[in-house]
Amino acid sequence: MTRKQKKTLVRIIVSFVILAGEMIYFRLFSGGEGEGAFNAVQLIAYLIPYFIIGYDILRKAFLGVIHLQFFDECFLMTIATIGAFVTGEYAEGTAVMLFYQVGELFQSCAVSKSRRSISELMDIRPDYANIENEQGELSKVSPEEVHPGDIIAVKPGEKIPLDGTVIGGTSSADTSALTGESLPRDIAPGDDVISGCINLTGIIRVKVTKDFGCSTVSKILELVENSREKKSVSENFISSFSRVYTPAVVFGAIALALIPPFFDSMNFMKWIYRAMTFLVISCPCALVISIPLSFFSGLGGAAKKGVLIKGSNYLEALAKAGVMVFDKTGTLTKGSFEVTKIIPQKGFSEDEILKAAALAESYSDHPIALSLKEAFEKRSGQSVSLKPDDVSERAGFGVYAEIEGRKILAGNLKLMNAENISLPENTESGSTAVHIAIDKVYAGCLTLADTPKDGAAQALKRLREMGVRHTVMLTGDSKAAADSVAGMLGIDEVHAGLLPGDKVDVLEELLTKKQSGETLVFTGDGINDAPVLTRADIGIAMGAMGSDAAIEAADIVLMDDNPKKIADAIAISRKTLFIARQNTFFAIGVKLLVLILGALGAANMWAAVFADVGVAVLAILNAMRARNSG
Amino acid sequence: MKRNYNLEDLDCANCAQKMQDAICKIDGVHSASVSFISQKLTIDADDEKFDDIMKKVVKACKKVEPDCTILM
User: What residues pair up with B44 in beta bridges, in sequence order?
Assistant: First the structure.
C-alpha cells in the first residue's frame, strides 16, 4: 500500500466508527422522531464524519467547478451526497461517501497490484554490468555505459546485461523470461548470448557486440512499452461510450429531479433523492479501467510465454484468424538438411558410404556437408577425425577426396557422369541426393531433406481445431520438396518455387479470397519476409531473438522458433477478448439495471455505490485472469 | 519528437481518458496517449515548440485532475 492508500484507510476506519456510533445513538435516543425532517443536532453530528471521509473529494469538486469540469467524478459525488443531506438522509449521505471511498481504495489497490504483477512478467531489465578493465579487475557500471568490444563478466544468478559472444567459461542460461521455454540452454565459449537471459551455473566472460540500446532486451522492452499505443476496437468503443455515458446520466438525473414531481403531487424530495442515485453511478470508471486492463494483462500473459504482441488491436485480430500462411524453411521446417535415407549398392554397407561421404566433405562448410558430418557422428558415436589426404572441390558438382588410399567421389549426378561412373538404373534423381563412388565404382547415394520441426504437425492440428479454416505454405523451394513437407503437416495449399517478390503477390491474392470477418496471418522467420509480414493482416515473426528487422516488421514476435506458440497466442487472444467482452456486458448491464431500479425507486444510493465501485473492482479482478491463459 | 513521461497520483481511469482528449486538442500535438495502467504519458509533438507545448500539457492536466503531476 502506498502512503496515500494508508491514509485513506485510516480515514475510512475513523469515519466509520463515528458514523456507526452516531447512527446507533440517534436510533436509540431519538426514537425515530423527526426522520427526514430538519434536525440541526443530527445534521452537525453527521457532517463530522462526512468531512473526515470526504474532504479531498469536496476539494477536488471545488477545483473541478473552477475549471468548469462539471462531469468530474468528485463533483458528481459531492452533488449526490449533498442532495442526500438536503432530502434529510444525513446518515445515508455520509455512508455513501464512505462506501465510495472504500470502493476507490479497493480499486486503487487492485490496480496497483495488477500493474505490479504484469510488470513482473517482463522483469528482464538488467540493473548493472560487471565490466572488466585491462588489468582484469571488475567494476559495476550501468549497462548503458558498456560499448561493443568491452568485456563483461556475468556471475551465476545475474542477468546477462548486453548481447555478446562468450569468450570464457561455460554455464547454462535460463531464457524463460524471453522465450517462456523452461529448459536452460547450455553456453560455451564461441556461443552468442542474448541479454535478458539469466546466467545459471558458472561465471562467463562475454565480449559485448551491441550497445545496450540495440541489445535484445532494450528492443523487447521498447516493443512492450509501445504496445499500449495501438488500441483495440473494444477499447475504442469503451472510450467513446464513456464520453457520452456521463453526460447522458447527468442529464437523466436532472430530468428525473425536475419532470416527474409534476405528476406526483409535487413531491420533489422523493425525486431528487432518486436523481442523486443516478449521479453516483455516472462515472464510467469500471469500464474505462477494466477493458484496457484485460488487454494489458493478456499482452503480459503472452509475453510471459515468449509471444510479444505489438498492440491490443493485433491481439484482437488474432482471435479471428481464419487463414494461416506460413513460410516453409525455418518456420515449419528446421531449415537445415538431415540425412533421411541411405541407399547403398550391392557390396557396400550403409555405414561405409555414410563414412565415405562424411570424410570426403569434412573440409566443407556447405549445409549439406555439415548435415552429412552430423549424421555420421550421430550414427557412429565418433567424430570425423580422419582427414582425407587429397581433396579437391568440383564447384557445382561435388568433391573428390582420397582416404586411406581409396578414391572417393561425392556429389550430384553430373559429377558421376563427368567422371564416367556407370550408374545403375532407378538412380535417385532429386537435387538433394548425394551420390558416392568409391574407386570409380558407384557405391550408392544418400538423400537429404529439410525436415519439419518437432511439433509442427501438432501445432497445425491444434490450429485447425481452433477454427483456422485454410492453411497455406509459401516457399522458394522445389515443388517436390514443398509437397513432401506439406503432406507430412497436412497443409491445404502450397505455392512453391517463389522468389521473394512473388510471395507478396501470392499473399495479395489470398487476401482477396479470405472471407469477411476473418483475418489472414502470415508467419515467417523474419529474414527476407518483411514485405509479406507488413502486408498480411497480422505478421508473425519467429525465432526473432537478435533479429532487429523481424522485430520491426512484424506485428507479433515469437521469441523462439516453435510454431506451437502461434496456437498459444490465439488461445490467449480469445480468452482476453472473452474477458473484455464479459467485463463490458457486466459493467454496462449492472449500471443500466441500477439506473432503471433507481428511477423506479427500488434501488437506493447503496446499490448505486456498488454499481459504481463494486463493479469496477470485480471487473479488475476478472481482467487479471487474462494473464494466466493459453 | 516523441517522448514518454511518468505520471504520479493518476487515480482515475476516466480522468486519464479526459486528460488524453485534452492533450490531443493542444495545437502542435500530433498524438498523445495517457495510460492509466502504466501511469505514463506518451506524446508526439512538434520539435521546435516542444517546451511550450509541454507547458500547455501540464496546465491541461491540472485542470482535469489537480492531484496528478507529470514527472519531467
Answer: B2, B31
Give the domain CATH number at B55.
3.30.70.100
CB–CB of A518/A323 below 8 Å?
yes
Which of B4, B14, B33 is facing A73, going by the closest CB pair? B14
Evaluate whether A200 touches A172 at the Cβ level (below 8 Å).
yes
Architecture of domain A306-333+453-573: 3-Layer(aba) Sandwich (3.40)
Q: Give the pairing of strands A129-132 and B29-35.
A: unpaired
Does A36 have pLDDT greater than 50?
Answer: no
Read off the pLDDT of residues A310-353 as tens digits, 9 standing for 90 and up.
888 999 999 999 999 998 877 888 877 788 888 888 888 888 88
Map grid coordinates 510488470 to a residue. A119
A264-322 residue pLDDT tens: 777 888 888 888 888 888 878 778 888 888 888 888 888 888 888 888 899 999 999 99
Taking the C-alpha atoms of residue B72 and residue A270, their distance in angstroms, rounded to an integer, is 50
User: Do residue B12 and residue A73 have CB atoms under 8 angstroms apart?
Assistant: yes
The amino acid at residue B20 is Q
Mean local confidence (pLDDT), A57-64:
87
Among B15, B33, B64, beta carbon nearest to A229: B33
Q: Quick one: pLDDT band at residue A471, thresholds 50, 70, 90?
A: very high
Residues contacting A266, CB < 8 A, separation 6+: none
Boundaries of every domain in chain A: 129-158+164-209, 306-333+453-573, 334-451
CA distance B68 to chain A (A): 12
CB A626 within 8 A of CB A294: yes
Mutation test of the interface with chain B: which of A57, A67, A222, A613, choosing the one with the most B Cβ atoms within 10 A?
A: A67
pLDDT 10s digits, A147-198 = 898 999 998 888 899 989 999 888 888 887 777 777 788 888 988 888 888 8
Express each pLDDT in A202-250 by its tens digit.
899 999 998 888 888 887 777 776 776 677 888 888 888 888 888 888 8
Q: Which of B66, B10, B37, B54 is nearest to A61 (CA)?
A: B66
The mean predicted confidence, pLDDT, of chain A is 84
**What's the pLDDT tens digit per position in A430-459?**
557 788 888 888 888 888 877 888 888 999
Assess if CATH 3.90.1150.10 describes domain A334-451. Answer: no
Q: How far apart are CA A483 and CA A449, in angstroms?
A: 12
> Which residues of chain B does A292 touch, with a Cβ-Cβ cutoff of 8 Å?
13, 35-37
User: CB within 8 A of A126, min separation 6: which ones?
Assistant: A143, A158, A159, A160, A161, A162, A195, A196, A217
User: How many distinct structural domains can be found in chain B?
Assistant: 1
Fold of the domain built from segment(s) A129-158+164-209: 2.70.150
Q: DSSP letter at A159?
A: B
Domain limits at B39?
A: 2-71
With CB atoms and an 8 Å threshold, state whether B14 touches A246: yes
Residues of A acting as catalytic residues: 327
Distances in whole angstroms, Cα of residue A227 to Cα of each of A231, A487, A611, B32, B70? 9, 37, 31, 14, 21
The predicted model scores a pTM of 0.77
Which of B5, B8, B12 has the highest number of chain A CBs within 10 A, making it the mutation to test binding with A?
B12
Nearest to A498 by CA among A521, A520, A524: A524
Write out the E strands in A318-426. 321-327, 333-344, 390-394, 398-403, 406-411
Give chain A positions within 8 Å (CB) of B21.
243
Residue of chain A whose alpha carbon sits nearest to that of B67: A60
A182: left (phi over 0), alpha (psi -120 to 50) or beta: alpha
Cβ–Cβ gap B42/A229 under 8 Å: yes
In the three-class reduction of DSSP (H, G, I as helix; E, B as strand; rest coil), residue A544 is classed as coil
**Cβ atoms A225, B33 nearer than 8 A:** no
Residue identified by cell 521546435 is B48
- Residues in Cβ contact with A64 at an 8 Å cutoff, skipping those fewer than 6 apart: A70, A72, A74, A75
